[in-house]
Amino acid sequence: MKTRSDAEEFYGRLVQLLAPGAGVDDEPARISDSFLAALSGRGDRAGLPPLFDQAVDRLHDEFRALKTGPRSRWVDDLVRRLGRDDPDDPELLNALWRALFPEALHLDDDPERQIPKLRDRRRVTVRRVCPDPVADPSAELVFTSNVLLSPPESGLESTDPIVAGAAAAGSEPQRFWYDHPIPVGTPLESDEAVYGLKGLSNTLRFEKQRGTVPPEARLTVILSVSVTHSGLHEWAGPWLKSQLSRLDSEDLDGLDVYAVTEDVAESIVDLLTPWLPDRDDARGVREVFGVDGEYGRHYSVLKALPYLWSVFLDPGRKGTFKIDLDQVFPQDELTAETGQSAFEHFRTPLWGASAVDHEGNDVDLGMIAGALVNEKDIAAGLFTPDIPWPPDRPEGEDLIFFKQRPMAVSTRAELMTRYGAEGAPDGENTALHRIHVTGGTNGIRFDALRQHRPFTPTFVGRAEDQSYILSVLHPQGGSSALRYLHASGLVMRHDKEAFASGAVKAGKAGSYVGDLVRLFVFSRYADALPGGLEGIKSEVDPFTGCFITPIPATLAMLRLALHLRTAEAGTTEQRQQILDLAAVRLLPWLEDSSDSTPDILGAWRRERRAWDAFYDAVERLETALERRDSAAQDTRESFRRHFEAARITD
To answer: Alpha-carbon dihedral of residues 441, 445, 449, 452, nearest 10 degrees?
Structure first.
């Protein structure tokens, strides 16, 4: 009879804690149960799908590495407590988290006490306010957002040739996956792009009435347009333009909207290529400068494109600000509760200030980040956290990956801080820098962009917003570190559930699996960066850091297995969809060994070089334009023509 290994014994007892009862009775749950049994040495691996068969060995390897690593004492403690088989052990949960998910106990075992301690770690002392703060956001900022398009929903009947062309593209293999893309053919009332642009126009109208911008003010808005299928390229721009043309003229009043597709991005790289310091860098720049692919690709471009706009078309622009199109500025609540409108918040002299962090390091507050409130919660107040406080004792997969706690703690410590409140910075001499940011409601000044050159790698497919700062978290050569200024009171209202709940439900499988993939991507990426995995974690714990772990396979696969056993994960069909998508997206990470880390390191180095080449080329162009160089002026004119062709509003 086979003797069970230490790893099998450990997982056997852990599974008893995590999944003490029977799950639902269907094929996804049976596969999950077979995996958990094989993991514990109590079942046959012969019938396991490749995803779970590969996972057994990986989880055993991670346990053995954990036992000899920095957490060894906590692993030994957990093994002892599990061996006692005492579910009433008051320290069992904390023992579990210390060994496998220490972010739940970040800075303190009591989550309520974690909040002020984390806030103190994010506190900065201002040395010098920005000498050239934003004065007129309408004239000095370029607003951006991303649009994600997919083929029409099956069964949609339409005589529109654009919709028909997009439907034909759906017969191709899908190349890219997004959480909740907008299907071509979506009605106006459910279209996220329409909703967000109308909201931005209303924001501008409010600012004009308040007198914070001139009556003739207009907003420049650049949209990246990413598609799930290559065949959608030719239909993406025409669809958006056609959709917006159906609106009343006042709906988008004051907005100049430009749609940048992959084709437009390629044309821009062609314009820049002659100005690259080394023509061999052209391929690298083309790989990073685009809008299709994982989320990281378009996210970085949405920071870089407005900078190009400022160089070629309007030197008066000082920065860029990104919104998500399912969010709007709740101007009435903003002015009532903070005394400032959205655009007045942009005027803070702290955006661009120089400061010192809690460890005495110089930081550049060249980025800015606001916060969110859910539409259903705003009646309770603008500063109602969009993340509810979790229970003290979670269940199921939340036991092993209790991200709700660090997310809730971080939201309250960072996003919800009100300057001047008891225990908070005063917002003048002291402030907060942010690690936890959201995909919208953040911006960067162009002087900071030129100096620090942050980017999100193209292999990052989720939490691209939180990944952006990782590339410059530990600056080399003793320079100041780029950080986000917490803009206290700059809050956007999240309305997705209110107008497009169907899209949210349809995207749940992709969102869930993307969260699992994020564990592998963030962990490998952090390990490749200056500072290494533990050094990066020390800066970005608890929430961003909870996805950076020495045991990504353990956390991802136990979460998946436990998820598939529960009715809360949806119907059998919905759980099968999760299982099928997980097989596609997770298996490559499980098949790779730790030797893949140099590949991540190599990719990061290539992309670092490509972005440096991009910014070097733009600086060369900028210098040439100042000299009135004819070739540079021709490039500027070509850039202008490309953007005029990309314009989708009259």
So the answer is: -100
Instruction: Decide: pTM greater than 0.90.
Output: yes
Query: Among 511, 353, 521, which residue's Cα sits nearest to residue 431?
Result: 353
Could you tell me the CA-to-CA distances from 152 to 163, 242, 484 in Å, in that order? Answer: 7, 15, 38
Angle (nearest 5°) at CA 459 between 442 and 191 = 50
How far is the C-alpha of 278 from the C-alpha of 617, rounded, in Å? Answer: 9
Alpha carbon distance 298, 455 (integer Å): 10
Q: Which amino acid is at 172?
A: E
Tokens of 111: 């989550």
SS3 387: coil
Q: List phi, psi (to 5°) of 371.
A: -140, 175
Quick one: pLDDT at residue 475? 87
Q: Look up residue 478 and give its two tokens.
A: 């003793």
- Rounded Cα gap, residues 506 and 603, in angstroms: 32
Residue 481: which H helix or E strand, with range?
Answer: strand 481-494
Residue 597 has pLDDT above 50, yes or no: no
In tens, the pLDDT along 184-238 reads 999 999 999 999 999 999 999 999 999 999 999 999 999 999 999 999 999 999 9
∠ Cα 513 520 170 (to 5°): 40
Which residues are 482's β-sheet partners?
A: 364
- Dihedral of the CA atoms 238, 240, 241, 247 (nearest 10)? 150
Is residue 442 within 8 Å of 368, Cβ to Cβ?
Answer: yes
Using alpha carbons, select from 610, 570, 568, 564 the residue that is nearest to residue 586. 564
In the block, residue with structure tokens 């994020």: 518
Residue with tokens 């007198």: 211
Place of tokens 């140099």: 598
Q: At residue 560, what is the residue type? A: L
Q: Cα separation of 642 and 384, whole Å?
A: 43
